Amino acid sequence: MKNQFTIADESTARDLLNFLQRAKRMDQNGFVKLRAYGNVLAAYVAPVFATGLNDSSPTIIGMRTMPLEADFEVDAVVTIDGIIVQLEAGLAGVFESLVVSLPEHQHVAWAGVTPPRSGWHLVGTLAERDLTDIARRGIAEVAESIPPSVGGPIASRIRGSIWGRSVDLKTNLPAGAAFAAAGLGFLTVDEEVEVYHSDGWVRLSSNHGHVLARQSNTY
Fold this sequence. Notes:
This protein has helices at residues 10-26, 80-90, 128-145, 152-163, 175-183; strands spanning 4-7, 31-48, 60-79, 98-101, 121-127, 192-198, 201-205, 210-214. It is of the alpha+beta class and 219 residues long. It folds into two domains: 4-112, Roll (DNA Polymerase III, Chain A, domain 2), CATH 3.10.150; 121-214, no CATH class. A six-stranded antiparallel beta sheet has the order 2-3-8-7-6-5. Strand 7 (201-205) and strand 8 form a beta hairpin. Helix 1 (10-26) packs antiparallel against helix 2, helix 3 runs antiparallel to helix 4 and helix 3 (128-145) packs across helix 5. The termini are far apart. The mean pLDDT is 93.
């Protein structure tokens, strides 16, 4: 059915819950795009995205996959809260399996951004410690650059310039991708994270998930 899917085991349910809780901390009113055509669910979130015409923020997409109990057809964008509530309720007692019903479908601009599905080629690796450092320095720069009295379009423009800046000439990875990878829990201490390119896009692939964004030419 298109309006629900079933998670067979507790560890998968906790994995999805943890992923969505991290995404919610990065965007309190966030959404998740859920797709499945078979027994694997892909969950997409966007910790960084443009909120208006004057916002230059890149669209940074975080993605995790997880197994389902059987084949399902799912393609929806829903509130993160709507899924978290069901996962928390299902994990509160003895776990057998969990049927997740999809809340009302939403329309959000970033969900229409479609990264390539093929053609990816490895261009190198980035050390976890470097990605973590990029994320920390970016967070500090955002905090220092936006006075408490500044909000709205000006704040969005500042954040966009910081998170859209490329971390190096080889990968053209926007700094916001490092921020997303760290915030979503995709980085493991001392891991070498693979970097891929395809048709103007860049992807970070770790043992815990993927971060996708358009390549940045801003330095």
